[in-house]
Amino acid sequence: MTALAEPAPAVASPRRGRPSALRWLGVSLLVAVVAGLGWRMFVWGMADWLAADGEDPHRVHAALHWVADHPRALFLAAQHDLEHKPAEAREHLEHLLRLEPGHAWGWLLLAELTLARNETLGRRYLETAQRFAPWDGNLHLRAGNQWLRLGELSRSVAAWDRAMAASPALRRPLFGQLETLLNYLGQVDFLETVARRQPVWWADFFRYVARPPTDLELVRALYALEGAEGEARMAQRRVFLDRLIREGHWQEAYLTWLNALSSRERRHLGLVFNGGFELPLSNLGFGWRTRAPQAVKIEHRRTYGISGDRALALHYRGRAVPDGHLAQYLLLPPGRYRLQYRARPDSLKAEEGVRIAIHCRGGRERRLASGQRLLGVYQWRMDVVEWTVPETGCPAQELRLDVVTERHRNREVKGVLWLDDFRLRPVGGQ
Amino acid sequence: MCQEGGMKRTAIFLTSIALVVGAAHAAPPQPVAKLGKVEGVVVVNQGERFTQARRGMTVYQGDRIFVMEGAVAELAYEPRCRLRLSSNSMLLVGRADECATGHVQVRSFGPHYAAAIGLDAPSVTDTEDEAAGTAAEGAGAEGAVAEAAAAGGGTAAAMAVPATLSGVVLYALIAAGGGAKGTPTETPVSAQ
């Protein structure tokens, strides 16, 4: 018990001074570190804040006063000084690139500054910039412009190609640039490499550039650049054919269209293509075309009493139907022709019916002949239409299904019309 | 009576003329030439039929020959005149002497430029009755064909790539033609 009452030995008392000094030292160090870090955070915060608005050069330079190594401020300062103070801009950029050697935009601006003085070095900087930012569309766009300035058209296109691959939003402005160059140079060879590769933007570019006012000769040349296959080629062909037909180049359009046919499709060639509707409708060139899908649903399918495997069914929905809602362009030399076809209306209701007609296209547009009215309901029936293609003023023709509106203006049609076995042949002498 | 006989004679005369004209009109078309070498897809339209061309095939007046991309065909006319149809061209077969006289209705399609850079496409011939884009061998045809070929070649040369391109001019051109088109809208820093 006594031992318990004894006071604890004063062993710790001599040590009390040392921990206190160490604590002070530690606390001081901590405070210094915290203060240092705080100060650094404060100055970097200030610099960040000042550099956040890249538009104001005073703020950007103020940011550099706070932190001389601030990469963003260095870059922005260089950008501001680029035009009027190139020496300062260069200093900022060199400083920036010492801090961040992989800063692609830094290399790009340095290239722009250097190209005027030392082209070889400038080119190297340009290449470096592109290498460091493979997916920066804006950078490649600007690099492409620099390559263009150097007269390196193919490198320029390659850079723009990367820009468009990286940033789809850049495609439209770059299409405009490429179109300007195409029209100015009057040639397409600078696009040959990229056309062969068929990048994702090529089909859209072709559609953009194939319209007027681009010279048709340039469009021909672009179309002749090989590379596209399958669907992409088909899309180009459609655009090119539409342009040729719109501008009345019927024979060229016909040959272009023939080239597009597969060997299976070529088996259905005739003066009317796919007259038995054995193939689906292509809506291309000199194949069957359809219009007004809201008013007429068109099916290519089996039914009774047909020759071959399929016939065409037009399901009219009771709405106003335009002329030529089913049509095919023909390329018939002058002469007399006879068309025969079979039709089966099924509860076909219209004021005056529908009928097959042949019109001149591309010259003096007029109706050459028309078939019997198709209306009501009856079994398969053959109709024969004859006409003469005149020597002049009728370079192409259109076989089409029109709404008869001789006495009434009502174009509404309801019901079903089946068509099959269109055969067209020259009459007499051939 | 005499008048009646005269009318009868006139009627017989008119009927015979009509028959002769009708017979001539309905007469089968005349063979004009034979196809020689055929490479690639060449389609012949005879009447309502479209068939693939083959060597030795006879073509008639009014037939159409379509030479597809990458194909060539040769027509042999009598006597001793050959007409070469190049890729992407079409011929409306005319008279038997068309090759010899050089009045062949051939149309060739494709860009001038393609010919200039050596792509397999002939020069465009927008005139109907010239034989540009073809090569014919035979009396009388050479002059017309050479002329047309020279015309095509001249156009191709005019479309040739300029020897030097002034990049600065091109750069100025795109800048002037709405430089904004090609200028990035975002500030470059945003790409960092």
Summarize the structure.
Chain A is of the alpha+beta class and 430 residues long. Chain A has a domain at 272-426: Jelly Rolls. Chain A contains 16 helices and ten strands.
Protein model, in words:
The complex is a heterodimer of chains A (430) and B (192). Chain A is of the alpha+beta class and 430 residues long. Chain A has a domain at 272-426: Galactose-binding domain-like (Jelly Rolls, Sandwich), CATH 2.60.120.260. In chain A, 46% of the residues lie in helices and 19% in strands. Chain A contains 16 helices and ten strands. In chain A, the strands form two sheets. Chain A has a five-stranded antiparallel beta sheet with strand order 1-4-9-6-7, with no helix packed on it. A five-stranded antiparallel beta sheet of chain A has the order 2-3-10-5-8, with no helix packed on it. In chain A, a hairpin with a 5-residue loop joins β6 and β7 (367-370). In chain A, α13 (216-224) runs antiparallel to α14 (230-246) and α14 (230-246) packs antiparallel against α15 (250-260). Chain A is elongated, with a radius of gyration of 39 Å. The N and C termini of chain A lie far apart (141 Å). The model of chain A has no long low-confidence stretch (mean pLDDT 90). Chain B has 192 residues and is an alpha+beta fold. Chain B has a domain at 26-158. Helices cover 32% and strands 25% of the residues of chain B. Chain B contains five helices and ten strands; from the N terminus they run αββββββββαβαβαα. Chain B has helices at residues 2-26, 98-101, 112-116, 141-158, 167-176, and strands at residues 31-39, 42-46, 49-52, 58-60, 64-67, 72-77, 81-85, 89-92, 105-108, 134-137. The longest helix of chain B is centred in the first third of the chain and has 25 residues, at 2-26.
